[in-house]
């Protein structure tokens, strides 16, 4: 596999000029423009990739790329980005197992039935692999930018400055992103929409947005619920608090479209702990009020809304804010590796059994992501030991890092767990 990846990488330089000259929206016959069907040839060498179910073909490619990303880390990757890279490779593995990939919509009986092409996000909101990595990293604005300008384009044909910056910050090269990006079958038959069809669809969407429509109470309620439960908003407004808090909210949209939001924070002293960085109660309330007002105004601006009557929505939202001790206990209590059969303890014991010197225990610095509850190793603290035992650290990462913890913090939580030789965690 490593040899295959190096061969593909060597071919990239030689084919770059050819890629640049290809017209936009041109299809290919293989799963990936750079790697071709290497992944399928290794998985099922006696069968034709073109005859395989599309989902299986995409999964085979992405599993091949994921294994390669774990094995080969380019020297150009900054040390500060290694942890983010590892977390996103773990996210890619989950995406592969979910198998909810983009699809093409437009069909034409005269199209080449073998034709394939990328699609960044489809009409149902399904993200391609690269788009999913950008989305889970929190850069939804970048996803929207790429989608608007390069929905059907190959990575190496995209002209988006932010994409290059994102790759550097998250530990990937642009060549790696191009290797990740699958193509999708147009079915039998299928074709790419022409530039004229894309423009017609854009004009149709714009016309639909100009049609007057009344703002609904359900929209206001939904925006409030989403805002109060948004991890970014909670992290910004409630930082420094752990325990259980309740938020009483009232949002009023007047018949002129003006928005008024009020939030009351209720916290019982016996159930809430405050760190020195915790904001005062009044500041927390204003923070949530501003977030709700901004989100509601964004919905109002998204279409030509009318206001036949004032809308009022009241809610009470209870939030559990986990402490570091509770997050640690959640890690220790996990019993299985969700992506394969067998217990976590058995898998970790196998990792340590293969470790040079067969240590009795290994201390593992971990980070729990504040948004998703993803668990990953804090590679930056390992130093030279990571380079010396890369394969074994990845074994531990692959075992611990799958699945999401319900207990997560308002900020990324760093702690250390110890893996014993029998696979138990302490």
Tell me the major beta sheet: 3 strands, antiparallel
How far the N terminus sits from the C terminus, by CA atoms, comes to 35 Å
Structural class from helices and strands?
Answer: alpha+beta
Give the integer mean of the pLDDT values: 80
How much of the sequence lies in strands comes to: 15-25%
Q: Could you say how many structural domains there are in total?
A: 3
Strands of the widest sheet, in order across it, are 5-4-7
Give descriptors for this structure.
single chain, 426 residues, alpha+beta, 3 domains, three-stranded antiparallel β-sheet, 16 helices, flat, disordered N terminus
What does this structure look like?
The protein is α+β, with helices and mostly antiparallel strands and 426 residues long. The chain has three domains: 2-199, no CATH class; 213-321, no CATH class; 324-420, no CATH class. Helices cover 44% and strands 16% of the residues. The chain is built from 16 helices and ten strands. The chain has helices at 2-20, 38-43, 54-71, 82-98, 129-136, 140-150, 161-169, 174-180, 195-210, 217-228, 231-238, 281-301, 324-333, 344-353, 384-388, 390-400; strands at residues 116-117, 184-185, 213-214, 241-253, 259-274, 305-306, 311-321, 361-368, 375-377, 413-420. The chain has a three-stranded antiparallel beta sheet with strand order 5-4-7, covered by helices on one side. A three-stranded antiparallel beta sheet has the order 9-8-10. It has a two-stranded antiparallel ribbon with strand order 1-2. Strand 8 and strand 9 form a beta hairpin. Helix 4 packs across helix 5 (129-136) and helix 10 packs across helix 12. The radius of gyration is 25 Å and the shape is flat.
């Amino acid at each position: 596999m490593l040899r295959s990846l190096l061969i593909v990488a060597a071919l990239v330089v030689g084919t770059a000029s050819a890629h640049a000259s290809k017209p936009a929206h041109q299809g290919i016959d293989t799963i990936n423009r750079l790697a071709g069907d290497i992944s399928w040839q290794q998985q099922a060498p006696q069968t034709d990739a073109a005859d395989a179910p599309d989902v299986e073909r995409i999964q085979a490619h992405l599993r091949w790329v994921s294994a390669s990303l774990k094995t080969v880390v380019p020297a150009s990757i900054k040390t500060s980005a290694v942890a983010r890279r590892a977390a996103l490779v773990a996210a890619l593995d989950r995406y592969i197992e979910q198998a909810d990939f983009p699809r093409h919509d437009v069909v034409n009986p005269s199209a080449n039935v073998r034709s394939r092409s990328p699609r960044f996000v489809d009409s149902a909101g399904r993200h391609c692999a690269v788009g999913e990595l950008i989305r889970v990293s929190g850069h939804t604005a970048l996803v929207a930018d790429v989608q608007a300008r390069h929905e059907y384009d190959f990575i190496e044909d995209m002209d988006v400055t932010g994409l290059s910056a994102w790759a550097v910050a998250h530990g990937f090269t642009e060549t790696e992103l191009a290797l990740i990006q699958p193509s999708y079958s147009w079915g039998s038959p299928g074709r790419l929409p022409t530039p004229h069809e894309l423009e017609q669809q854009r004009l149709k969407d714009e016309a639909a947005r100009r049609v007057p429509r009344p703002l609904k109470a359900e929209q206001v309620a939904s925006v409030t619920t989403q805002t109060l439960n948004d991890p970014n908003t909670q992290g910004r407004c409630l930082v420094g608090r752990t325990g259980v808090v309740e938020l009483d909210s009232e949002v009023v949209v007047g018949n002129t479209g003006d928005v008024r939001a009020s939030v009351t924070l209720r916290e019982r002293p016996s159930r809430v702990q405050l760190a020195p960085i915790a904001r005062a109660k009044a500041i927390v309330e204003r923070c949530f009020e501003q977030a709700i007002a901004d989100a509601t105004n964004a919905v109002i601006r998204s279409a030509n809304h009318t206001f036949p009557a004032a809308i009022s929505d009241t809610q009470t939202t209870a939030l559990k804010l986990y402490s570091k001790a509770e997050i640690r206990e959640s890690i220790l209590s996990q019993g299985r590796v969700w992506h394969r059969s067998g217990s976590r303890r058995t898998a970790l014991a196998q990792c340590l059994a293969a470790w040079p010197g067969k240590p009795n225990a290994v201390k593992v610095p971990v980070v729990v992501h504040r948004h998703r509850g993803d668990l990953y190793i804090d590679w930056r603290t390992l130093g030279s030991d990571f380079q010396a035992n890369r394969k074994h650290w990845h074994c531990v990462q692959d075992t611990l890092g799958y699945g999401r913890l319900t207990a997560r913090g308002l900020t990324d939580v760093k702690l250390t767990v110890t893996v014993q030789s029998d696979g138990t965690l302490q």
